[in-house]
Predict the structure.
Amino acid sequence: MVDNIKLKFPANIPQHLLYGTEPFTHYEMKFNPSYSKEGEIYGFTTMINNLKLDVYRSTSTYCLRNSLHKFSMGNNHSDFTKSKLIAALQELRHNTQENIFEADIQQLEIGCNIIVPDANAAWKNLGSYKGRNYQPQYYNGQPYGSSCYFDQYVIKGYNKPTQVKAVDKEIIQENLFRVEVNYKSMAALHNRKIKIPLKKVKDLFEPEIIQQLCDDVVTKYRDTLKNQIVTPTTLKEATAYSRMIVPVVKELVHSNHKDTYNQDRALYRRLMKKAAEGGDNIEKLLTAKFAELMNK
């Protein structure tokens, strides 16, 4: 479900506090000055558990970031359900005494943890997505996952116990594999054929929008080229597959032959789905886990 998030919303802090130079307390939140490289105060900052809340003088706005999952549960390897997400947002509204439901969402991370026989084998199976190869993630010089980078989003798959040990120094026994999509810009949701109308925090209360986000994670996993043999059975499939996995060729076809590109993409996705069905059941596990989190 939702993990890391970045929000922006108006800060109703008295100007004499915002333009002062001393730490201050506002609605039980203790703010300390934030300094630029030149030593000038440009705002103030505080922490709400693990969440960082900055306020900027120039715009009188808050910026809140970090993991909602950890804010709610104290970790981000347990199950973070829809009801717990809503409760966490309501708690934040109480803490800040602001109408946080109207806050603009600037960045968002969606994912879930599933139990698999071998989490390392699961991430090593990730090959490429839309012609871009997954890149390994490292801890102490050893790879524990892989990521596929785009301008507006990043797809990740990794060994969750290894990541938890690295970040939180905690040992968990379950063999968890995590798949997530980090939307670095909301344009990733808005500038697409089927738009996901997520703009404000209140939109996260809409089951249809949350479902669309979960489906997008599953689809990106499904359409990821796995490190297993893809076997086109016709010359048409082989040609379409070859054009889709070479970025330069793919872009040329997309720019100059739209009908051919659409046909290639349809054949490519069909081949990817077939390959995934023949290789593992992680897509089914992701779909089932998201459904479980949505209904609790």
Summary: Residues 1-102 form one domain.
